[in-house]
Design brief:
The chain is mainly β. It has strands at residues 3-5, 9-10, 13-14, 17-18, 27-29, 37-40, 49-50, 56-60, 71-74, 77-78, 92-96, 102-104, 107-108, 116-119, 125-127, 130-131, 145-150, 156-158, 173-174, 180-184, 191-193, 196-197, 209-211, 236-242, 251-262, 266-275, 293-302, 308-319, 325-332, 344-345, 350-351. The chain is globular and about 65 Å long.
């Protein structure tokens, strides 16, 4: 109990001397581990540099059932050397079969498979991590997903399902993952909100959020289907109204979206994402946007006895380029987040007369 692993280097080189990578995991927590379990720390001197492991850089076994105030993996460099740029890949960055851990502010780059694999773990919190991008801003492709959830329930990737926080304070940044951004292959109540996810897939068109293992999932009437995150339907955008008349090169442009959600009765958090393009690649059923920038949040309630609700959402769009799109997700009160939805094209946006004076919700 009460372990701290801080300030170490596993794998890579030191002073020109090669360190052998671990034959299995560099750091493994499990069996009877309890109490405070800390890997890394917010101080630079406390971070671990972890590379070269044949399996996991950090492995938290299923016997660990903790809480985020006790089980913390913080501020480590995983799959990259001490300079934050030189690749030193593990097979998987973090293999998280345990429950109740905080994965916070790590840089996980260049590993051979998933950056973070929630492998059956529940109630873990993944926030403010940078996945796939080196310190100098370069991308290093990795063959798996940024965050892969298989069988876990109640995990939070970014902002929780019930939070009203707007913005990217708790966001993970996920890019350059060959397979995609976040895959919820199975499990439920896994909230995926406010993250910045883009440029995944070899052509940059892999899904940012994928439910199940069959690629993009189309909405179904009234949303009765089961599966990962209950295969939650995403909202459909109706119209986009600018609040005023933006100039050609304007940024951070205020707008109102009208949209609808077809799903089960209940309350939902709605998140809006801006992207400079809409993709209709091999992974897509219909064109989907990306989470290049976070545009805003709101809520909608589908009343009892109904499966539909219309709503409007106040957003800020990163720019007004004709190729720009905005897309939405829905998250129910249990934390089941949808895939990022179909594209609302800024090329079809209108200037709103009602809110032309700048007054809005």
């Amino acid at each position: 109990s009460n372990h701290v692993i801080a300030g170490n280097q596993f794998g890579g080189t030191v002073g020109g001397i090669a360190l052998p990578g671990a034959g299995l995991n560099s750091v493994s927590i499990g069996v009877n581990a309890s109490g405070s379990l800390i890997v890394g720390g917010l101080n630079v001197a406390d971070r671990n540099v972890i590379g070269g492991a044949s399996f996991g850089g950090i492995n938290v076994q299923s016997t660990v059932v903790s809480s985020p105030d006790k089980c913390q993996i913080v501020n480590n460099l995983i799959g990259v050397g001490p300079n934050g740029n030189t690749a030193s890949p593990n097979f998987t960055g973090i293999n998280l079969s345990g429950s109740g851990c905080s994965i916070y502010a790590n840089r996980v780059v260049g590993n051979s498979q998933d950056a973070i694999w929630i492998n059956g773990g529940d109630n873990n919190i993944v926030q403010r991590n940078i996945l796939g991008i080196t310190v100098n801003g370069s991308g290093v492709f990795n063959s798996g997903y940024g965050v892969h959830i298989s069988g876990g329930n109640g995990n939070v990737v970014g902002t929780s399902g019930t939070s009203t926080i707007s913005g990217t304070l708790l966001a993970n940044t996920i890019s350059y993952m060959v397979d995609g951004g976040v895959l919820a292959a199975s499990g439920s109540n896994n909230s995926v909100r406010s993250n910045l996810i883009h440029d995944n897939g070899v052509s940059g068109d892999a899904l940012d959020i994928d439910l199940g293992t069959s690629g993009a999932t189309a909405n179904d009437a009234n949303d009765p289907d089961a599966g990962a995150n209950n295969l939650q339907n995403f909202p459909l955008i109706g119209k986009i109204y600018y609040l005023g008349t933006p100039a050609a090169n304007d940024t951070n442009v205020a707008a109102i979206l009208t949209a609808s959600l077809n799903s089960l009765p209940g309350s939902y958090r709605i998140d809006a994402y801006f992207s400079n393009r809409c993709d209709n690649g091999a992974f897509h059923v219909t064109g989907r946007g990306h989470a290049d920038a976070y545009a805003g949040t709101g809520s909608v309630t589908i009343p009892a006895g109904s499966n539909n609700a219309n709503f409007s959402l106040y957003v800020h769009l990163a720019n007004v380029l004709s190729t720009g799109v905005v897309s939405l997700t829905a998250t129910d009160t249990l934390g089941n987040t949808s895939e990022i939805g179909s594209c609302g094209f800024l090329s079809n946006a209108q200037t709103d007369k009602i809110f032309a004076d700048g007054f809005g919700p």
